[in-house]
Amino acid sequence: MNQAGGELLSATEVREVERTGRCDLSERGLTALPPEIGRLTSPQTLVLNGNQLTALPPEIGQLTSLEQLWVNGNRLTALPPEIGQLTSLRQLWLDGNRLTALPPEIGALSSLEILGLDRNQLAALPAETTQLTSLQALGLNRNRLTALPLEITRLTSLLALWLNGNQLSELPPEIGALTSLQILGLGGNRLTALPAEIGQLASLQVLGLVRNRLTALPPEIGQLTSLEGLGVDGNRLTALPRQLADLLSGGLELGLAGNPLGPILELSERGASVLTAYLRSLEDAIPQYEAKVLLVGEANAGKTALIAALRDEPFAERRPATHGIEISPLALPHPDSGFDLAVRAWDFGGQEVCRITHQLFFTKHAVYLVVWKPGQGQERSEAEGWLRPIRLRVSGDARALVVGTHCSGEQHPDPDYPHLRQTFAGLLAGQFEADSKTGRGIPELRQAIAADAAALPQMGQLLSPRWIAARDEVLGLAEAEPIISLERFAAICCRHGVESDQATALAELLHILGRVIYFGDDQGLRDLVVINPGWLTKAISYLLADETTRKADGVLDHARLREIWQRPEDGPAYPARYHPYLLRLMEKFDVSCRLGGDQYRSLVAQLVPQDRPVLPWDFQTPVPEGTRRLTMICQLCEPAPGLMPWLTVRHHRASTGRHWRDGVFLRHPIAAYESEALTELRTPTELAVDVRAPSPDYFFHVLRDSIEDLMTRRWPGLSYTLHIPCPALAADGSPCADPIPVDALLARRQEGGTHYRCPRCGTSHDLSTLLAGFSQPVLSLQPELDRLHAEVADVRSGVNVLKADAAGTADTIRRILRAVTTEITDCPRLFTLASADPSGFGELALDQRPCRLTLWCEHPGHWHPWPDASYAIDQPREGLLRIAPYATLVFGALQLVAPLAAAVAGVILTPGELQQVQDQVQLMTALTAELPAQETGNQPELATPGSGHQITLAQAHAWRSVRTLILEHDPGRAFAGLRPVQESSGELLWVCPRHCLQYDPGLPGIPAG
Ligand SMILES: Nc1nc2c(ncn2[C@@H]2O[C@H](COP(=O)(O)OP(=O)(O)OP(=O)(O)O)[C@@H](O)[C@H]2O)c(=O)[nH]1
Ligand SMILES: [Mg+2]
Ligand SMILES: [Zn+2]
Ligand SMILES: [Zn+2]
User: Fold this and answer.
1) Whole-prediction pTM
2) Rounded distance, CA 198 to CA 352, Å?
3) CA of 710 to the centre of ligand 3 (A)
4) Which atom of ligand 1 is nearest to the CA of 297?
5) Which of 300, 368, 497, 878 is deepest in the core (most CB within 10 A)?
6) Could you read off the pLDDT of 890-944 as tens digits, one per residue?
């Protein structure tokens, strides 16, 4: 055993310890430390991470000069009492051991500033912990604490306290004593409430409460004026205290996902200012009892007649078919109290063409009536056919009733209800038989709808009486004026005491509730509010029914719109001045997209030809030399109606003009990437993707993310699995293509496996090659960066290599940027820093020189500085130190942009932009060299659930500081015109006005008639 006695360290190593004061014995397979360790002369740091130590010898107590002791990732079950002799110790790291208790002597460590005890088995802390008066950071993540040790609350100098992943069920009021505390992590516990005293934590900057059981937040939370981050994702909140408004307007970053907050959650996604305005309006709010009832079913099933009957209107013998959606009020008595529920009935036209668009209006927290007409012999499949798309969209968060019409008494229809009930458990709430002509069954149905509506989570939600008055006046105009200007909307609001920022928030809220259609962040549409959604859906239905466009393979000549939307019989009017807006609205609903290079034509993706056109290659075509392919198969559990037309529209910038009902052939718009993709629904539930390029990773990742984003956003109730077709070739050259589940491959790699044998053809595949398109989250991005920098350095002389791999480099940059940008989305995230005047301040130290922070445009592949958004940082000393860990990472990535852009100059950036990139990067490189070096080795990884673990805690904190710094200098969040847009892969990006046009092109042109 070489770790015994003096052999533990070689003579050279001993001298090195003496010289540096640091003794690093990490990952040496040590099972025990020899007593001789005590004879080491005065090391200040002893690192024993990643060994198999079960105990520390008592002699450890002799190392009295020790300031840092690192024993992370060992098997310690206890600490020797002698640990108490290490009175100089400032940091003690014991993460990832098996400690169940600490010796009381721990209390003697009077110099201790950091105590790391994450991932142990502590059920309690000894009372002596109280004596650690110097303690600033205490990590107790993932232990077994069931109650907050009251001792902790006496550690009044504590700055950071981590208690994530314990079993705490309550916080004592004494917590309020920790007035120095800046970070408090309580995620993954069992808290149901917070004490009001939490408001006394005046220094608190970050409060983590994700994945608890909180049903409310105390109003006192509003007193935490230093709070920068509050994470309450995954709790049971149904409302927010209005006291949060001031914190939000001060820049609080608030995580709310996964709470049953209904429309409030969506409001928060529209931006902090919208949520702030809403919360501020709640002062004298009153509860609302409103619900939405949606009627779906085949044409002629009797939906419109049923609504008439429910409203006690006389029966009409021959009703015209419904176009689009008709929305009308329906008052139903609340089941237990005297008042009426204000129900809006949405009557969907049954024609086939509208179904894809109509599902966008299938919202959660509503009551669905699946209406069917017995006697057609298709009852069961018919009801099922309507329940499926509902479930795909609402994933259980709604109630559905199956209603048979034309049931005057004689026949007894049987839609095999038990089968439906089993298939749609959780969604299906009952079955009814009714006759709209005789009124049979109508009172019972009315009662059932009222009972289900009254149980919806939004019942009793608060709304300001001023907002209510403004809303009612606006919506009163819906019949006469289906669309009004935002100015008019605001004027009406103003009359009711709703000021302008609240008026936009009201418009957003009404949009979320489906009462109006308002796209406040769209260049072309921001000045209009559609106050009659039915008017718009009818316009869509007329367009989709246009035979001329269908015959033209879905290519819509804008000049035709005049004909399509000329006043149809009995239909609403569509004045020509609204046509550009209507067409832009079609684009927002993914019905159509513009054809590249033709301002007067669009593609209506649902009307494309049925047959596949001739393609440059298909799945069977062998891959030529110099080209790689990445493929995947996405297996859906049930068909997702509209998937292909929506994918076609989303990727129209990569269009090659080859699209058909079940597929689309794409080419990445950056020609230098030479990337082509074939995406096809081979069966209604099997989506195949094949990307071919010299470096296909980038385009493949973009497509994969975009497909997954589309599926998870549009159909929360859809489950699917990803597969990789076996790439092995048979003797005849045809691929084996046996689908291999990606999950299984990832699990195998996790377990340390390196190969996978295909059960069909027996080929053994290298796991990492097979999973090339599914790279694991980069745990530490630095090595990846270092590798790329080395590559770039190699090719400085000839940029051709880099050019050839432009797409590969773009992929790495994208991954790095994604990792550093997942945390925060409410301000631009790429930036460079440079000395404000590099010449004049040469003599001054870095932290005394004024500095300039410049934001970048995040358009993928085109990253460039946006000099207008640049802020002078007057006192960089403290700021720079704080942001260094994040800044170094971003700079590292951006340094690659310049050579990449130069390599494909003229294609990606304009010469002016390229010059700016080079200037910024040069200034920044000089400055980075002076930033404090980062000790990355021992930093704990950021343990945010679901965030992919990609950046370290230090980097995440640093990024938070960057955001604070930016918002301090730009409190109005103007960012000199950088605007957030959504990429087809779902990411939010901040882009300059020029690149913004790619995402938000404004209103389409319509030729003068
Ligand atoms: N006897 C009888 N006739 C009904 C009943 N429900 C509907 N009808 C008649 O059936 C026809 C179709 O009814 P609608 O209510 O217009 O059907 P719909 O489902 O709204 O059809 P679309 O709007 O085209 O999707 C009308 O002529 C109704 O008068 C019913 O319960 N009993
Ligand atoms: Mg109808
Ligand atoms: Zn195979
Ligand atoms: Zn740009």
Assistant:
1) 0.85
2) 56
3) 30
4) 19
5) 368
6) 777 777 777 666 665 555 567 777 777 777 777 766 666 665 554 433 333 333 3
